[in-house]
Amino acid sequence: MEELVRYIVEHLVDNKEDVSVEINEDSETSSTIYISAKPEIIGKIIGKGGKVASSIRQIVKTASANTGKRYYVQIIER
Fold first, then answer.
1. Three-state DSSP class for residue 67
2. Structure pTM?
3. Residue 78: what pLDDT?
4. Which of 13, 62, 75, 76 gives a 20 to 30 Å CA spacing to 48?
Protein backbone atom coordinates (compact mmCIF):
# COMPACT_ATOMS: atom_id res chain seq x y z
CA MET A 1 0.00 0.00 0.00
CA GLU A 2 2.91 2.31 0.79
CA GLU A 3 4.24 1.90 -2.75
CA LEU A 4 0.85 2.81 -4.23
CA VAL A 5 0.61 6.03 -2.22
CA ARG A 6 4.24 6.89 -2.96
CA TYR A 7 3.62 6.44 -6.69
CA ILE A 8 0.56 8.72 -6.63
CA VAL A 9 2.14 11.44 -4.51
CA GLU A 10 5.45 11.53 -6.36
CA HIS A 11 3.60 12.15 -9.61
CA LEU A 12 1.71 15.09 -8.09
CA VAL A 13 4.84 17.07 -7.17
CA ASP A 14 7.69 18.43 -9.28
CA ASN A 15 10.55 17.10 -7.13
CA LYS A 16 10.25 13.62 -5.61
CA GLU A 17 12.68 14.49 -2.82
CA ASP A 18 10.24 17.06 -1.42
CA VAL A 19 7.83 14.38 -0.24
CA SER A 20 8.12 11.18 1.79
CA VAL A 21 5.71 8.36 2.55
CA GLU A 22 5.95 6.17 5.65
CA ILE A 23 3.68 3.52 7.10
CA ASN A 24 3.04 2.84 10.77
CA GLU A 25 1.49 -0.48 11.79
CA ASP A 26 -1.04 0.54 14.46
CA SER A 27 -2.34 -2.99 15.02
CA GLU A 28 -2.89 -6.20 13.09
CA THR A 29 -5.99 -4.75 11.46
CA SER A 30 -5.03 -1.12 10.91
CA SER A 31 -2.14 0.99 9.68
CA THR A 32 -1.54 4.68 9.14
CA ILE A 33 0.20 6.00 6.04
CA TYR A 34 1.93 9.33 6.65
CA ILE A 35 2.59 11.64 3.72
CA SER A 36 4.99 14.40 4.74
CA ALA A 37 5.92 17.31 2.52
CA LYS A 38 7.23 20.83 2.63
CA PRO A 39 4.57 23.47 3.39
CA GLU A 40 4.77 24.99 -0.10
CA ILE A 41 4.11 21.60 -1.72
CA ILE A 42 1.40 20.31 0.60
CA GLY A 43 -1.26 22.25 -1.31
CA LYS A 44 -0.67 20.11 -4.39
CA ILE A 45 -1.20 16.95 -2.36
CA ILE A 46 -4.33 18.19 -0.60
CA GLY A 47 -5.82 19.84 -3.69
CA LYS A 48 -8.56 22.42 -4.00
CA GLY A 49 -11.14 21.76 -1.32
CA GLY A 50 -9.31 18.59 -0.32
CA LYS A 51 -10.36 16.74 -3.47
CA VAL A 52 -6.95 15.20 -4.20
CA ALA A 53 -6.47 14.06 -0.60
CA SER A 54 -9.97 12.61 -0.61
CA SER A 55 -9.22 10.76 -3.85
CA ILE A 56 -5.99 9.32 -2.42
CA ARG A 57 -7.90 8.07 0.63
CA GLN A 58 -10.59 6.51 -1.61
CA ILE A 59 -7.98 4.74 -3.75
CA VAL A 60 -6.31 3.34 -0.62
CA LYS A 61 -9.67 2.21 0.74
CA THR A 62 -10.56 0.46 -2.52
CA ALA A 63 -7.13 -1.14 -2.91
CA SER A 64 -7.22 -2.51 0.64
CA ALA A 65 -10.79 -3.84 0.49
CA ASN A 66 -9.76 -7.51 0.21
CA THR A 67 -6.79 -7.36 2.57
CA GLY A 68 -8.76 -7.36 5.82
CA LYS A 69 -6.77 -4.37 6.97
CA ARG A 70 -7.82 -0.74 7.37
CA TYR A 71 -5.48 2.01 6.21
CA TYR A 72 -5.64 5.64 7.30
CA VAL A 73 -3.89 8.40 5.34
CA GLN A 74 -2.45 11.42 7.19
CA ILE A 75 -0.87 14.40 5.42
CA ILE A 76 1.62 16.32 7.55
CA GLU A 77 4.10 19.17 7.06
CA ARG A 78 7.81 18.60 7.54
1. coil
2. 0.92
3. 87
4. 62
